[in-house]
């Protein structure tokens, strides 16, 4: 079976600085794929390239067997690649439900058709978008917090809200950038359950995370980046024993 | 007397508000001043005049004509004066200059077609004056107030109730994130220009009806007032533009009534200075304007 996402020989330079050097990795459909590595390893850069925010300097991106290198971010989103942000980025002027509704745009006929529907008193797309937004809030465990503004929520709930917003687009690939950051052990356990529920819906998850126990518990495959290069790739039990990975994290053995 | 002046001010202010909303909408999504917006207002007024003169239709058709022509003109200006520059990377100055240029072209074209003189806008209502005891109001005034407020209510419902409106608000807050979340921001920007310009066109026809005259240069004064109102109301705030427009309209009428008519513009900008001294971000601070 061809992988859902294939990243091939990807290099990204910022001026003279090489953030990613010849990175290749496959994300198999229906799995949880974790991306780990020390700070500055290029994890977020890779996320930004996969989601179309940045363009690679060289290399190709293939999604569902189709080359989409250089595609605009909103079109990548429309293809079914949704994401959250390491620094939570919600719309402060929009209510909680409206924030999630934003995620529905791409997959529900698009804005152009909305314009035609505007003449109707209650367009079906409007009702469907609101219902879907409420379902997604329920899924991430925020069914009781649907009114009000996002900045009234705790940081953990803001992270959940971002995941709900990403899910509202019915993605096939969900990119999660440090979803467990700032969470206590109970919340991390809840997050792990949520990620498993998401995968059970048939959504593939690619995540960046520093919380090692969380990663080792849920990931099917782990890719380890260090200084822009892949230093190891494989299932959690193999990665845990890999000498190169231990050296990258802890420094060489004395 | 005071109530009568307030009514007159409300009528004038509602047309100001329609123009100022346009500046706010466009500033919201692009963080740029659209300096041809006054000319869009003017072209809308002429479109209304043409509907009345050439097609012998009534005031509602004139408003509709102004709305449609200005809305289309807004889209054209977006495509010609803003989008090509945006494609070539961020530049704050170039779109401002290109929109000034577009405005001059529109003034010249209208002068060529209709002459530089004022054109009479035929009276659309018989001179009925309704005496409501404390105030008296003409049919024209009622028409202007009803159309202007109906437009503002329609806009409010659109931005709060529809997905497209939510998309416009999201794009105003952060264009980049909106794009990452699948919103076609180019389409949203074009739509915003269309709505902003359509409201400006409505205002043009209403002003033409009010003063029974239109001219290719009527947009110049309106543009400076519209921008002053945007600052009074708060950059990019639709409701600030509504409140600021009404405030300025009432203030201007009162200054003419109780001070001297030659000070009306000084009063308008004096009001702007006072508001900005007390509330530097305007009445409805949005927080946009410093970011990005």
Characterization of this structure:
The complex is a heterodimer of chains A (254) and B (292). Chain A has 10 helices and 10 strands. Chain A has helices at 43-50, 73-79, 96-104, 110-117, 124-139, 155-167, 185-200, 212-218, 236-241, 243-250; strands spanning 5-14, 17-27, 32-36, 58-63, 66-67, 81-83, 173-177, 204-208, 221-226, 229-234. The longest helix of chain A is centred in the middle third of the chain and has 16 residues, at 124-139. The radius of gyration of chain A is 19 Å and the shape is globular. The model of chain A has no long low-confidence stretch (mean pLDDT 85). Chain B has a single domain (2-290), classed as ABC transporter involved in vitamin B12 uptake, BtuC, CATH 1.10.3470. Chain B is 75% helix and 3% strand. Chain B has a two-stranded antiparallel ribbon. In chain B, strands 2-3 form a two-stranded antiparallel ribbon. In chain B, helix 9 packs across helix 10 (238-258). Chain B is globular and about 60 Å long. The N and C termini of chain B lie far apart (48 Å). The model of chain B has no long low-confidence stretch (mean pLDDT 87). The chains are: A alpha/beta (254), B mainly alpha (292). The A-B interface holds A 51-53, 72-74, 77-78, 82-83, 85, 89, 91-94, 98, 101-107, 110-112, 114-115, 118, 123, 125-126, 129, 165, 169 and B 158, 161-164, 166-167, 169-170, 172-174, 176-185, 187-188, 191, 286-287.
């Amino acid at each position: 079976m061809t992988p859902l996402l294939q990243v091939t020989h990807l290099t990204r330079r910022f001026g003279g600085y090489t953030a990613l050097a010849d990175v290749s990795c496959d994300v198999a459909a229906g799995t949880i794929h974790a991306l780990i590595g020390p700070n500055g390893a290029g994890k977020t850069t890779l996320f930004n390239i996969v989601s179309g925010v940045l363009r690679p300097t060289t290399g190709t991106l293939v999604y569902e067997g189709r080359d989409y290198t250089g595609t605009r971010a909103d079109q990548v989103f429309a293809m079914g690649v949704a994401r959250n942000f390491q620094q939570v980025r919600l719309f402060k002027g929009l209510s909680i439900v409206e924030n999630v509704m934003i995620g529905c745009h791409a997959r529900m006929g698009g804005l152009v058709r909305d314009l035609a529907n505007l003449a109707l008193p209650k367009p079906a797309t409007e009702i469907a978008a609101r219902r879907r937004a409420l379902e997604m809030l329920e899924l991430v465990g925020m069914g009781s917090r649907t009114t009000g503004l996002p900045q009234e929520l705790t940081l953990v709930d803001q992270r959940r809200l971002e995941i709900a917003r990403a899910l509202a687009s019915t993605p096939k690939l969900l990119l999660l950038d440090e979803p467990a950051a700032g969470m206590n052990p109970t919340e991390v356990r809840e997050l792990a359950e949520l990620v498993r529920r998401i995968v059970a819906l048939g959504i593939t998850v690619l995540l960046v995370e520093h919380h090692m126990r969380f990663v080792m518990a849920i990931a099917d495959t782990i890719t380890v980046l260090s200084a822009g290069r892949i230093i190891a790739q494989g299932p959690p039990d193999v990665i845990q024993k890999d000498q190169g990975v231990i050296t990258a994290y802890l420094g060489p053995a004395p | 007397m005071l109530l009568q002046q307030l009514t007159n001010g409300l009528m004038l202010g509602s047309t100001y508000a329609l123009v100022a909303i346009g500046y706010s909408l466009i500033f919201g999504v692009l963080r740029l001043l659209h300096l041809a917006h006054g000319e869009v207002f003017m072209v809308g007024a002429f479109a209304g005049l043409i509907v009345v003169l050439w097609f012998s239709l009534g005031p509602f058709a004139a408003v509709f004509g102004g709305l449609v022509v200005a809305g289309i003109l807004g889209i054209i200006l977006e495509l010609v004066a803003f989008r090509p520059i945006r494609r070539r990377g961020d530049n704050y100055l170039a779109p401002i200059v290109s929109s000034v240029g577009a405005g001059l072209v529109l003034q010249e074209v209208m002068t060529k077609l209709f002459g530089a003189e004022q054109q009479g806008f035929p009276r659309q209502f018989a001179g009925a004056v309704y005496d409501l005891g404390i105030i008296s109001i003409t049919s024209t005034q009622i028409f202007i107030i009803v159309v202007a407020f109906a437009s503002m209510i329609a806009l409010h419902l659109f931005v709060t109730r529809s997905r497209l409106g939510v998309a416009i608000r999201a794009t105003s807050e952060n264009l980049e994130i909106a794009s990452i979340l699948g919103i076609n921001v180019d389409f949203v920007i074009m739509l915003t220009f269309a709505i902003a310009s359509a409201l400006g066109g409505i205002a043009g026809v209403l002003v033409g009806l009010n003063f029974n005259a239109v001219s290719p240069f009527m947009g110049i004064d309106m543009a400076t007032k519209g921008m002053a109102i945007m600052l009074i109301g708060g950059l990019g705030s639709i409701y600030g533009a509504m409140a600021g427009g009404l405030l300025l309209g009432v203030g201007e009428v009162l200054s003419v009534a109780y001070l001297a008519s030659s000070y009306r513009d000084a009063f308008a900008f004096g009001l702007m200075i006072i508001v900005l001294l007390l509330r530097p971000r305007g009445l409805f601070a949005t927080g946009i304007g410093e970011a990005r």
